[in-house]
């Protein structure tokens, strides 16, 4: 279902939520699944222990071709209890609010450098592509630093990540991209095994060895998950967030520029409003369950739509309006339940620092083309291909 406006979810969601909140849908591979569009139903099933996240399950809703690639060792989002709880505990400490606060000065340095280069590129009023100058480099540099990857190698994972997450990619293309990333990260993990350092991978190697749980293939898969989840999503949120803020009331931007303490709440509303990761929150029910009066059988797949839930008017009044002062408590932009996004604290920090720095240093920032004419991505993670700006 394509988005009918640049920012909101597919228009069909509103009708389904009102008339058929638990509905049958046909997937790209010809199979069918249940689609949930009400907030309460989405949270209920995402926290239901009688479900499986195993992407190798024959009934798992494959929203992209070759979903088996995402069922590799180390992919926490494909694990069930007790395995999931064990490995999540091993890595949770790396993404706590305290750990991210310690990273903020380095993130600020990265953002300052990228914005400075953008200002040079756009000197004299020349349009610059914000995607290439800021949206992609910032999360790329942060992830490179966390994993201990040379930034010169970023093109390897940027190119292959785009292929993996693009719904129009063929199974063969996706398989090739997955293999290239696996080989690249496998070599990186091998180098860390020889001499564990203070990077995230180095610390995890030591921690897993001490617990007598170390597995090369598992850590390679986890590194790939971090790369996919922590790079493309944040990059697209930067581009789309800037577009929303520049496309709206200029007084709103002036408020944010004058008071940076408003930015955390604005970021939460952007996360809810845009909901760029919509349907990877998919599962298979292991027991027959009733949802909004509909019986879903055991071994049937469902898609809990995050975008539909975040635009449920029963929870977020007038959901199609961006309101940075609204209460966004409970939004599901990062998923919900035991599989809620591990890196959400890091993503929030990056977004806050990018937006505050960008708007403080470019008070005249504006879009070259209106929001309705920008090239949006038809991808598993919604975003923008290019975003020309000037000031």
TrEMBL record:
<dbReference type="InterPro" id="IPR001128">
    <property type="entry name" value="Cyt_P450"/>
</dbReference>
<dbReference type="Pfam" id="PF00067">
    <property type="entry name" value="p450"/>
</dbReference>
<protein>
    <submittedName>
        <fullName>Cytochrome P450</fullName>
    </submittedName>
</protein>
<dbReference type="InterPro" id="IPR002397">
    <property type="entry name" value="Cyt_P450_B"/>
</dbReference>
<comment type="similarity">
    <text>Belongs to the cytochrome P450 family.</text>
</comment>
<dbReference type="InterPro" id="IPR036396">
    <property type="entry name" value="Cyt_P450_sf"/>
</dbReference>
<dbReference type="GO" id="GO:0016705">
    <property type="term" value="F:oxidoreductase activity, acting on paired donors, with incorporation or reduction of molecular oxygen"/>
</dbReference>
<dbReference type="GO" id="GO:0004497">
    <property type="term" value="F:monooxygenase activity"/>
</dbReference>
<keyword id="KW-0560">Oxidoreductase</keyword>
<keyword id="KW-0408">Iron</keyword>
<keyword id="KW-0503">Monooxygenase</keyword>
<keyword id="KW-0479">Metal-binding</keyword>
<dbReference type="InterPro" id="IPR017972">
    <property type="entry name" value="Cyt_P450_CS"/>
</dbReference>
<dbReference type="GO" id="GO:0005506">
    <property type="term" value="F:iron ion binding"/>
</dbReference>
<dbReference type="GO" id="GO:0020037">
    <property type="term" value="F:heme binding"/>
</dbReference>
<keyword id="KW-0349">Heme</keyword>
